[in-house]
Amino acid sequence: MKKDERHQLLRKLVQKDVITKQEDFVDKLHERGIEVTQATISRDIKELQLVKAPAQNGGYRYNLPPEMDYDVSQKLSRLMKDAFVSIDTQREFVLIRTLPGNAFALASLIEAAKYKEMFGCVSGDDTVLVISRDEESAKRLQKKIISFI
């Protein structure tokens, strides 16, 4: 399993289950047939910036940090409805124009979504340039982004 996939699974586990210690993560992944060590989980926790917060049962549990505890899709949808101007593709490039001052936030959300079609993303004040892995990926990504409007 790739690190990005494991990180996504860990985020879901934290939201769904009460995870009180690193070994809980290891056990949950082993139940799914994913071999992982406690040292790997420790690094993942740091990279994901998971925090321990009081649990309802009186102990502590892992949680997502406040800024990560949101639905990227909902924020993308809201921003696209409020600030979208146009979108176009050329080969592996997707160019998105927004109202002035909105491109940085849009680029940040697109990066947070971690689309597999995306190689990288740069933005200015009113323009986001998404570099896709290939021409077909650019077309798929354009459709995904348009779906938020």
TrEMBL record:
Pathway: Amino-acid biosynthesis; L-arginine biosynthesis [regulation]
Cell compartments where the protein resides: Cytoplasm
Keyword field contains Repressor: yes
GO-annotated molecular function: arginine binding; DNA binding; DNA-binding transcription factor activity
Residue ranges constituting the Arginine repressor DNA-binding domain according to the UniProt record: 1-67
SUPFAM superfamilies from the UniProt entry: C-terminal domain of arginine repressor, Winged helix' DNA-binding domain
Highest taxon of source: Bacteria
Alphabetized InterPro entries for the sequence: Arg_repress, Arg_repress_C, Arg_repress_C_sf, Arg_repress_DNA-bd, WH-like_DNA-bd_sf, WH_DNA-bd_sf
One Pfam family cited in the UniProt record for this chain: Arg_repressor
Domain Arginine repressor C-terminal: 80-145
Keywords: Amino-acid biosynthesis, Arginine biosynthesis, Cytoplasm, DNA-binding, Repressor, Transcription, Transcription regulation
GO process terms (BP): L-arginine biosynthetic process; protein complex oligomerization; regulation of arginine biosynthetic process
GO cellular component: cytoplasm
Record's keyword annotation contains DNA-binding: yes
Protein family per UniProt: Belongs to the ArgR family.
Function: Regulates arginine biosynthesis genes.
Protein name: Arginine repressor
